[in-house]
């Protein structure tokens, strides 16, 4: 398994697109973190030196988790698109092990991306004065931890989606991206908030200790459910990969 992990990591780090996505994500995170600093005190925006401004800077890393999901998708679908999956399975015929290695690699890369994004928002916040030690409390710490952990969990979800739609990369990219970008809230709008909190976005809000979502689940419930959803989909995806004709 260790050899497979090294192989999968090598595939990601020696490919151009993952690096481009990471660079764009971190640059966009920096720009978004600077926005509440620039708009501080204007048109009702929170003023520097308040907890609201601190949270606004931290929240700049929220959307980057979607890129972690995209990296998870590409870790699987790129091999099918470029027909390199045959060589991979000839070297390691146990398809379940290959899927597991891809999932673990995506989780590690997602966690690294989340930590890098957190370092950027923390740096912007510290330099601008938006993040101050005396303003940090338990809720803000949970918010920061939840934002970072969303990255590896979304990367795992992306790997699962990639396995389920391995032969259709565009669909594997578009469906989860649009769904988690807000389509889910629209699709579930007819149901009550008590039902929506159990959705992907609802559990994500719980994990991130979101204060603007009513009836949000406890943070540990959100984290557990999001992990359970990802693992269930990954199991279904692994079964599909195991039954897919690679020839």
Descriptive report:
- This protein has 247 residues and is mainly α.
- The chain has helices at 2-13, 16-38, 51-58, 64-81, 85-91, 95-128, 138-164, 169-187, 193-196, 200-207, 219-243.
- Helix 2 runs antiparallel to helix 4 (64-81), helix 4 (64-81) packs antiparallel against helix 8 and helix 6 (95-128) packs antiparallel against helix 11 (219-243).
- 40% of the residues are buried.
- The mean pLDDT is 86.
Notable features of this structure?
globular, mainly alpha, 11 helices, 247 residues
Taking Cα atoms only, what radius of gyration do you get, to the nearest Å?
19 Å
Total E-strand runs: 0
Spatial shape:
globular
Mean pLDDT: 86
| Strand fraction | under 5%
Compressed to H and E, one letter per element, the order equals: HHHHHHHHHHH
| End-to-end distance | 24 Å
- Number of helical segments? 11
What are the low-pLDDT stretches, counting only 5+ consecutive residues below 50?
Answer: none
State the secondary-structure class: mainly alpha
For the largest beta-sheet, the strand count, sense and barrel status come to: none
Query: Level of helix content?
Result: over 70%
């Amino acid at each position: 398994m260790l050899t497979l992990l090294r192989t999968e990591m090598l595939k990601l780090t020696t490919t151009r697109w993952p690096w481009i996505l990471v660079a764009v994500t971190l640059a966009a995170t920096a720009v978004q973190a600077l926005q509440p600093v620039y708009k501080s005190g204007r048109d009702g925006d929170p003023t520097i030196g308040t907890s609201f401004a601190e949270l606004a800077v931290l929240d700049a890393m929220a959307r980057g988790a979607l890129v972690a999901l995209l990296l998870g998708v590409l870790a699987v679908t790129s091999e099918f698109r470029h027909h390199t999956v045959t060589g991979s399975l000839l070297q390691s015929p146990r398809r379940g092990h290959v899927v597991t290695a891809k999932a673990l690699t995506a989780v590690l890369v997602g966690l690294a991306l989340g930590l890098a994004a957190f370092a950027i928002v923390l740096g912007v916040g510290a330099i601008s004065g938006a993040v101050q030690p005396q303003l940090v409390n338990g809720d803000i710490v949970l918010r920061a931890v939840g934002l970072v952990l969303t990255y590896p969990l979304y990367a795992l979800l992306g790997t699962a989606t990639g396995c389920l739609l391995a032969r259709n990369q565009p669909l594997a990219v578009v469906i989860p991206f649009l769904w988690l970008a807000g389509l889910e809230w629209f699709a579930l709008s007819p149901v009550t908030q008590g039902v929506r909190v159990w959705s992907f976005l609802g559990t994500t809000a719980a994990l991130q200790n979101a204060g603007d979502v009513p009836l949000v689940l406890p943070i540990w419930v959100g984290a557990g459910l999001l992990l359970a959803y990802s693992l269930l989909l990954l199991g279904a995806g692994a079964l599909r990969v195991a039954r897919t004709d690679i020839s």
